[in-house]
Amino acid sequence: DRIRYRRLWSETGWRIRALRDDSVCARQEYDSLLDATDPGLSVRVPFEIPAPMIATGARPQVLILREQGVNGHVEMAAAFHAAGFDPVDATMTDLTNGRINLAHHRGLAACGGFSYGDVLGAGQGWARSILFNEMLREAFRAFFHRPDTFALGVCNGCQMMSTLAELIPGAHGWPRFVRNRSGRFEARVAQVEIGTSPSVLLAGMEGARLLVPCAHGEGRASARLADGGRIALRYVDNRGNVTEHYPANPNGSPAGIAGVTSQDGRVTILMPHPERVFRWVQNSWIPKEARGDAGPWARMFANARHWLDGM
């Protein structure tokens, strides 16, 4: 039968991975082929997907922050532009040299994609370039403490902001993001569930099950978050159950943690990359019921604009 032939086809790869990577993860992925009733990927969108904002009126600026090696800034800028923002390309050098001042901005998105060549601890290194610089440390602390600002950290930006937790109100107890349990870089499509949290970016998206790409070598949450209400995103399996099982959970994060938020919801950090799939056409698979250009993740960026307009 089909299962038998898929197992035969995959056996050599499994044996190589069991020697090269984490043997438990390798076995879990190989044994997942035994599930004859696996329903496969699915999407649940219990909210309205917004159309792109094409109005020519005022567009508030949002800083698209990158460090050496980051390559996710173009998608991030496109997602915010579609939501009605004017994205501003900002490097850490711009902040260090004073060409860009955080005090003049209300939105910040720290991007991902191989900062410092994705060497181990790259996100922490990025954070320490802020923590060990008196001027930058105070600038970021002041930005995070202003009640009219929001921030998003994705991938390396997620790692960086988790290390800046001491500067962020309501970020106490945030996990760090460390090496994947599998021992390898994971580039996969994952299914995530959006829970109930104070995140202003995920407002109205509670209960959704969405597809999102992952691309990281250090995405495993180092610990469970004591305050479960601040877990913004969790990995789920094909049946919609929160999971720590590989590969549905690509990094082994406890309680399926894929993202967290601050106590007031103004700062949200996510390990997966929603900015890479804010349009349906960017996905490698879409459900039959998909309509229009904007995908479900467009709602997250539109939320940022609506929140800003309401302040």
The parts where pLDDT drops under 50 for at least 5 residues are none
Q: Please state the structural category.
A: alpha/beta
In this structure, how is the largest beta sheet organized? 9 strands, mixed
**Gyration radius, to the nearest Å?**
19 Å
Query: Helix and strand string, N-terminal first?
Result: HHEHEHEHHEHEEEEEEEH
Distance between the amino and carboxyl termini: 60 Å
Number of strands: 11
Helix content: 25-40%
Strands side by side in the biggest sheet: 2-1-3-4-11-10-9-6-7
Give the DSSP E fraction (strand runs of 2 or more residues).
15-25%
Can you count the helices? 8
Mean pLDDT, nearest integer? 94
Morphology:
globular
Relevant terms:
9-stranded mixed sheet; 311 residues; alpha/beta; single chain; 11 strands; 28% helix; two-stranded antiparallel ribbon
What does it look like?
- With 311 residues, this protein is of the alpha/beta class.
- It is 28% helix and 18% strand.
- It is built from eight helices and eleven strands.
- It has helices spanning 2-20, 23-31, 73-82, 92-96, 122-131, 134-145, 156-163, 298-310; strands spanning 61-66, 86-91, 107-110, 150-154, 177-178, 186-194, 209-216, 220-221, 231-235, 257-261, 267-270.
- It has a nine-stranded mixed sheet with strand order 2-1-3-4-11-10-9-6-7. Strands 5-8 form a two-stranded antiparallel ribbon.
- Strand 10 and strand 11 form a beta hairpin.
- The protein is globular, with a radius of gyration of 19 Å.
- The model has no long low-confidence stretch (mean pLDDT 94).
